[in-house]
């Protein structure tokens, strides 16, 4: 007996030690199991308890297969030796592992079996039942058991921490943030000596903050939780999966999909099917947000089958809704899908999953509208609006959409506009919290449908002024309230990024071997900069520039403003003239997209020396003529009147100067043009002329234009470093950059101008407050901004205008070396004489020979942006 006591005591202590430090205590527990199995005087109870401890270490490392194997063996040993009390503990541990493996029935059987073996229910038994019920979607029942664990004495620190943590999640999901915070405080106290649980509680706090609608605060909390997982020595897979929700709300869809895919693979590989199914659900939702309807439907159906097999009604209902949404977007309404959506809405509503229920009712309403069942549609749309009213802003916006659709169904035009205005006002406040221009642009997607509802109603009413107003409400709105902010201190990161990018470029040119490590280093530095800048807060209330058609008419001074929009596949134009504003229907937008694609292809062929110039030139002329026919002639405006063009979508890549015979200014929105009108320079009018490396015509270009200015600052390679250029640009009133550019459609903020020591990114320009009053970007494709949902746009032109640049000239295509030099010389002659960018570019173009292929490309390539 004397030998048994120390072994038994060590085995009992092993589980407590592993629960506190699974990675650090694993080796000691493995040694104890080996000792017990090899010893001549085996102590069955000690071996059972040691196996339980080792299985818990396996579980913490996400090796659920090994954990289940050890627990199965421990159950057999306990039963063989009639070890009742240890058997209860083993069964409850196996229930947790089985639940996380997605085997809900087996977990329930283990909990029931443990309950029959003990005369008195214990906190551990209540906890096991509560966790099982919560994962089955029966939160009301689990809530009572968690509260009992916390009330009764005798529970372990682990049981108390888990109960408080899970109660917080229930209250957060039900929209009770204050209660959630209180229980999280309690959970943190109980988990103080349990590093693994402390990390989990930190993730729960981040998720609860997200549910409360405090998005930036939630992102910071998610980031703060990461080191806790490393300190505890446990994989952060579940943390990453919860973080996906924050990335999705930020509309960082590509990043979220990468994280979700990685988490699903990790969980599947380790047999953690419960979390893998959660991940599949998120993969489906993200595919839907990305417009991948087939992928969304496939992933949703797979997730729904798995979740139903796990008896997880709430999540299975959410998966069903995603599948229905995907099919609705792809193939239209279907009666069977309406039945599925209604059933899912009823389930989610009944189980208190309010946010998910809003989406389910909204989808049910859409389907019923499409199937001409107005009574069913009203019921679900009104329920969605009611559920969303007290919810955080992003759910509230979905409720506004539902209410707007309901008003549209009732032919209540005023109600449609009222709901759309209220939803976009909410979105303005939400968007204004972000200092990051990237996040502001992405956030606008939440309001795309509200804008469509408002514009549809305005066009239906036949009012040109109201139509223009609704075009403007979702037109580059994210750019209109941007003010310079003090960005985070990332100077060292920016320098490191430039060095890594330069090293990667040199290795690529040299044909080096495996570039993966260099590429990974660049991505890691970019991710760090993005995280810091995304976390910055804006210090403003949410107001943005609003300009009325009357104000526009007064300011246009005889010019005509033409703002294009796409509504249900049809291209529209709002034309603001001195005496009226009218709407012109221009036909299917697909025709224009095809002509734009053909034109850009022809211009690329013409820009290549030695190419077949004549066929490409004929093709370009046909495309330009076709675009005039589609976009200009139906407007019936005077041909000699200066024009402000506000394009949309693919129309941003059009050479607008080549479509009109008068000066043309291009703008992201009417309000952004109005805000960039000529104003006196802030300083003495310094001029910076900068040439980048490896561009044969750059030096010649700078030499040709410097004579137009009395005392310009000139930077040539190797002196035109990023730091020198940044300093010059911050002081300049007028800046000219002749260099290579690198566009990043995956993240336009990392688009860059190539300088002598590496790239100067748009991110860095924003962080350093670089926005000269006027700029000439004589670099290829610098006007090729990337379009986003809700008619948002992001790139060199839009970002610089948003930050305060009042006039730019930039190229929509590749421009041949040296071919643009004459154009630039004439452009700067006009700028030096005090002309606006628009007038100077118009005059410079008239001196070119469009019959020459290279001159023709330059004649087409450059647009003027802004009003100065």
From TrEMBL:
Residues annotated as domain CHAT: 623-866
Gene3D superfamilies in UniProt: Tetratricopeptide repeat domain
SUPFAM superfamilies xrefs: TPR-like
Recorded superkingdom: Bacteria
Name of the protein: CHAT domain-containing protein
Native source species: Nakamurella flavida
